């Protein structure tokens, strides 16, 4: 009988699976699982720094920014610094900001942090997990921007170097200080040649496939990725996603054949290499899978998917301690911990 991965709870593995098993990695699943973009943003109960309870909700006619953080995370600390600067810049522009610390952050620690950092924006604690449960928060830090009608207009998962432009620019768009065209130029200043209609349709089909894959519908996702590759034969992303979805439906040999063709065109395409490693896992060639996936983790700025699949391959091999180590590394990357 196969024993469980030592020291690594099933709940944690389930979280990793939900985040990383989906095609194309993190960011595909919604940041707020219980709130869809364009839907009314719910109110929630928090604990104020004086220990009293308060209900927080967006005000009509005002743009609201909610930043959900955990003080033990480096990414949360970086986000707080950038977000507070943005909020200070936009405080007279009809934008309200609120920080909500995790239920795992002790109230006294949060108070000390706010005083030490001199944060002016309202700072609360989700002591009763009300925000966590109502929003369906999956990964912290997380950002929600709510428009003047009280609807979720934008979400940003975790934190990276694009945060300031992506979130700050969208805050300005919602406040009427920036046009959508100006925002697009800000977040993608160097646009390539105009895409053909076929390429645009391929992108649309890829996005449809990703949504299906996020729900575990890999056979239907494969159909969309295949259509995308047929619409735009030069789109290696479509071919890679098609191959990975085939592997996930038990067609590993067919997937590997497609991926060999992709890697002949671009031997350095990391996602194709990772998809090859995943296909090898589904084929049962765990030793080769470990070798291939290890290459994708090297010098990779976002190695969490590689770490997760290395854990899967090693667990299949029976190397449980090593598997647990890679699962932990993946989780730490996702949570922004050192």
Largest sheet: 5 strands, mixed
Number of extended strands:
7
Write down the overall mean pLDDT. Answer: 88
The CATH superfamily of the largest domain turns out to be Tetratricopeptide repeat domain
Strand order of the largest sheet: 5-4-3-6-7
Distance from N terminus to C terminus (CA atoms, Å) equals 35 Å
CATH topology of the largest domain: Serine Threonine Protein Phosphatase 5, Tetratricopeptide repeat
CA-based shape: globular
> Quaternary arrangement of the chains shown?
single chain
CATH class of the largest domain, anyone? Mainly Alpha
What order do the SSEs take from the amino end to the carboxyl end, as H and E? Answer: HEEEHEHEHEEHHHHHHHHHH
Proportion of β residues? 5-15%
Tell me the helix content.
Answer: 40-55%
Secondary-structure-derived class: alpha/beta
Topology:
Elements (H helix, E strand, L loop, with lengths): L9 H11 L23 E4 L5 E4 L6 E7 L4 H16 L5 E7 L5 H11 L5 E3 L4 H6 L6 E5 L5 E6 L5 H12 L5 H8 L9 H18 L3 H14 L4 H13 L3 H14 L4 H14 L2 H12 L6 H14 L2 H16 L3
Parallel strand pairs: 3-4, 4-5
Antiparallel strand pairs: 1-2, 3-6, 6-7
Overview of the molecule:
It contains 14 helices and seven strands. The chain is α/β, with parallel strands linked by helices. It folds into two domains: 10-25 and 196-335, Alpha Horseshoe (Serine Threonine Protein Phosphatase 5, Tetratricopeptide repeat), CATH 1.25.40; 44-187, 3-Layer(aba) Sandwich (Glutaredoxin), CATH 3.40.30.10. A five-stranded mixed sheet has the order 5-4-3-6-7. Helix 2 (74-89) links the parallel strand 3 (63-69) and strand 4. The protein is globular and about 60 Å long.
